[in-house]
Design goal:
Blueprint lengths: L1 E9 L4 E10 L2 E6 L7 E11 L1 E6 L9 H7 L2 H17 L2 E6 L6 H10 L7 E4 L4 E2 L10 E2 L3 H13 L5 E4 L18 H13 L4 E5 L2 H9 L4 E4 L7 H10 L2 E3 L3 H8 L6 H23 L20 H10 L4 H8 L1 H6 L17 E4 L13 E6 L2 E4 L1
Parallel strand pairs: 1-4, 5-6, 6-7, 8-9, 10-11, 11-12, 12-13
Antiparallel strand pairs: 1-2, 2-3, 4-14, 14-15, 15-16
Helix pairs in contact: 4-5, 6-7, 8-9, 10-11
Bound molecules: zinc ion (ZN).
């Protein structure tokens, strides 16, 4: 048993309390106002929040100007080695858990195992393996193609057999695949339902890449648990109602279009054009969804063009900019992100039972959205990993 002494920020109540967080076997067991009678006491100086979570990353993508082209040109071992280096950077930035929503040959599943076994340092990884898409659909170059409910079911089972702990399905087109319209429907509702059901059976999250309104509604009706990007058409009342009824989470990934737009002249022109057409609406819909009570989750889509690893501090800044309150910005990267990973109670909280993953920030995140960019110390599973 040991304890960490400091000023703790609790995301549930958005409250700041000075005290002692008692840890045993890598998990939080208690919070006390007075020093515990036994065990080592480790002082933390700054504002201590639960380990931050990025709910949408692509560890095998570089975040360069054209990551898909880069992948096709490099050997698999190079991609793996570069991803291992990225994992260290996540940890240093206070991000102690990520969800990978599609990696080259499903390699994030293998990275997750290496981290779990203690072979390499890194955030805890909830990996979807390969993304599943219709033949010729968005992301087909690095995903797996399936058509019809039966094939989607089988593809999902194959990813789970390989060790995936989340599922990624393409409900609409996207920005990064040439010749594919960003908002156009991809999988239909029955195909999405087949995948969502396989994830549900295993108690793990199902994520739908969904940008057009029809695809978003299909995904919500199908029982998908997290909507990625969301929001390129104007949403109607039915969309907000479906979010409320299903309790689905929205992961807007505002950092993704921001990166592409800044890369004008360097990023492939078709990506810039597609992004310019939707960027303002994306921000507006995120704001409206938040105001209507949809839970917003912090996810960056890191690895996409000029969206480097790690980029969570920027996403949190952008979420504050579209109108999230500072307590809700903190919840987006802790409580709500843990829910998106299917790990509520284990991650994103300082409550007893959770992993003792902690980040010490220089400034109070309830007073500044920029606080996440200044990390002093990082604790993972009760061990100081950045002093
Ligand atoms: Zn993505």
């Amino acid at each position: 048993m040991k304890s960490f002494a400091g000023v703790f920020v609790f995301p549930e109540e958005a409250a700041v309390s000075e005290g002692y967080l008692v840890v045993e076997d890598g998990r939080i067991v208690d919070f006390a106002r007075r020093p515990p009678k036994a065990g080592e006491v480790i002082p933390l100086s700054g504002f201590v929040v639960p380990g931050l979570i990025d709910a949408h990353v692509h560890l095998s993508f570089s975040g360069g100007v054209d990551p898909a082209a880069e992948l096709n040109a490099e050997p698999l071992a190079t991609t793996v080695a570069r991803a291992v280096a990225r994992l260290r950077a996540y940890l240093e930035a206070g991000i102690t858990a990520v969800r990978d929503l599609g990696s080259r040959e499903g390699m994030a599943v293998g990275l997750a195992r290496a981290v779990d076994q203690g072979d390499i340092p890194g955030p805890r990884i909830v990996a979807a393996g390969r993304a599943i898409t219709p033949t010729g659909g968005h992301g087909h170059r690095n995903g797996v193609e399936a058509d019809g409910a039966l094939e989607v079911q089988k593809a999902a089972r194959r990813e789970f057999k390989a060790g995936a702990r989340a599922l990624k399905l393409m409900a609409t087109g996207g920005v990064m695949t040439p010749g594919v319209k960003a908002g156009a429907e991809m999988f239909d509702e029955a195909e999405l339902r087949a995948g969502a059901l396989e994830a549900k059976k295993r108690g793990v999250p199902s994520a739908a890449h969904a940008q057009g309104l029809l695809g978003i509604k299909n995904a919500l009706r199908a029982g998908i648990t997290t909507i990625e990007h969301g929001a390129f058409d104007a949403w109607d009342d039915e969309a907000f109602r479906l979010f409320r009824e299903t309790g689905a989470l929205l992961v807007p990934t505002l950092a993704a279009p921001a990166g592409i737009l800044e890369g004008e002249g360097r990023v492939p022109e078709f990506m810039v054009e597609k992004t310019r057409a939707i960027a303002e609406r994306h921000r507006e819909n995120t704001r409206l969804a938040y105001q209507s009570g949809v839970k917003i989750v912090a996810g960056t889509d890191a690895g996409t063009p000029l969206n480097p690893h790690p980029n969570l501090a920027r996403e949190l800044w952008l979420l504050a900019e579209v109108g999230l309150s500072l307590p809700d910005v903190l919840r987006a990267a802790t409580l709500h992100a843990a829910e998106a990973l299917g790990m509520s109670g284990e991650l994103g909280t300082l409550a007893p039972g959770a992993f003792a993953d902690l980040v010490v920030l220089e400034a109070n995140p309830l007073e500044s959205a920029g606080a996440y960019a200044r990390v002093r110390q990082v604790v993972q599973g009760g061990e100081v990993v950045r002093a």
